[in-house]
Amino acid sequence: MPEISASAGRSPLRDLHVPRPVKKSKTVYEGRVWDIARESFRLDPADKSREPLTRELMVHPGAVAILAVRTKLTTTGPREQVALVRQYRHPVGMELWEIPAGLRDVDGEDLHQVAVRELAEEADLRAREWHTLVDYYTTPGGSSEAIRVFLARQIEEIPDGERHTRQDEEAAMPLVWVGVDEVTDAVLDGRVHNPSTVVAVLALGAHRAQGWRRLRPVDAPFVPDRQAPGADWSA
Can you list the domains of the chain with their CATH numbers? Predict the structure, then answer.
């Protein structure tokens, strides 16, 4: 196999947004949150000699997650802590420690607005300082779900009378503040498995190591996805 330069032309390493034209698409399952589609496409649209590939995929609205960090004064000095909630996840039959997160399921909300709402609804918290921490696809081999993880700092608790009333799985989610080093150890030891938590904690360590100079603004361009303005996923 010929070697391909990851940064041809001296451009930075980056994923390429080159969706193949979809020749046939059918929704085979409509769910409460996401649908399953069956789509046919050619890897090389110009090569008509090969039969199109057919794949099933989850068409997902996307989500945000929030790594809320506060500095707690202790007897040994200031200590950075991360807000975690514990939520039951039925597909894996586990209660997972997670950073607050939620779906992009309200029309007209930009990513930052979704994050502000979800941090309030899931953790009864708000923040005065926001940055984009990291973006990622959860399962690009089978789902269109794209997640932006925000870093929230200068944290405040929402007064009791202004708090959101939780329902279903969210009704019994405890909130804890855990030291950054302890959460990092839990991730590296394989004791914490939620993907947004894993990605966010490792990204936090990388940003700290680089002196926070690579933090992006809250309105930084988002990874291409099927909900992004201007994204061309048509035939």
Answer: 19-59 (no CATH), 63-209 (3.90.79.10)
